[in-house]
Amino acid sequence: xxxxxxxxxxxLLRKLGGMTRELEAEFQRGVMTTAQSVExxxxxxxxGPVLNVRSGNLSKKWQTKAHGRxxxxxxxxxxxxxxxxFGGVVPPHRVAPRNRKALxxxxxxxxxxxxxHMLPAIRIPERPYARPSVAEEKPHMIERFRRIVQRHxx
Length: 154
Hints:
Elements: E1 2-5, H1 9-15, H2 21-45, H3 57-60, E2 63-66, E3 71-75, H4 81-86, E4 88-90, E5 93-95, E6 103-107, E7 110-114, E8 117-119, E9 122-124, H5 130-153
Antiparallel strand pairs: 1-3, 2-3, 4-9, 5-8, 6-7
């Protein structure tokens, strides 16, 4: 989950002499535009340059929502998103069949079957996609809010 909040907004608004509804609406549009752009960057990274796509589930499940005053959240509910972003170790665990009586795979050209299989610990390397997306969007965000402030102090 990525939360984008316009830091220093209260101080900025005091310096601008309070916030009109028009200015607040424009700031909120800027926050949402920035968050949507981050979401798009994340999705583009997940379609190939960072991870090999299997189901596309991770790239499809990102969403942007308003998150309070002058804040937005870019998030996913895919449980394995965090381990791909930061890396980590999946502990040893047992894999059992879900829809059949046995697991099936090919090994050495032969069919293999098992009612369960113990997998060793698996190290997943860090493959960041969200943090670089935020960093890439930062200069655009700064320019977006600079233009908003300039329009309102003239």
